[in-house]
From TrEMBL:
InterPro entries: bHLH_dom, E-box_TF_Regulators, HLH_DNA-bd_sf. GO terms for biological process: developmental process. GO terms for molecular function: DNA-binding transcription factor activity, RNA polymerase II-specific; protein dimerization activity; RNA polymerase II transcription regulatory region sequence-specific DNA binding. The lineage of its organism: Eukaryota, Metazoa, Chordata, Craniata, Vertebrata. SUPFAM superfamilies: HLH, helix-loop-helix DNA-binding domain. Residues 1-40 form the BHLH domain. This is BHLH domain-containing protein.
Length: 73
């Protein structure tokens, strides 16, 4: 069990957060990691400028094509 906990701790370190946000539980960490990985993949496969892509996502809200539905997570 210790190795799973340390793996989640390491995974949390890769998910961008604000300093005031709480420590995410395992249940919270997994969907966030999936969404963040999906966003990064979409940025890399997009033909637009990565900076503009992120700006558009933050203005309009991210609606990635491969976002997991709530029933899948």
């Amino acid at each position: 069990m210790l190795s799973i906990n340390s793996a989640f701790d390491e995974l949390r370190g890769y998910i961008p957060t604000f300093p005031y946000e709480k420590h995410f539980s395992k249940i919270d960490t997994l969907p966030l990691a999936i969404a963040y990985t999906t966003l990064l993949t979409d940025i890399l496969t997009s033909e637009s400028n990565p900076k503009l892509y992120v700006q558009n996502c933050t203005k309009e809200g991210y609606k990635g094509s491969r976002m997991p539905s709530e029933t899948q997570v």
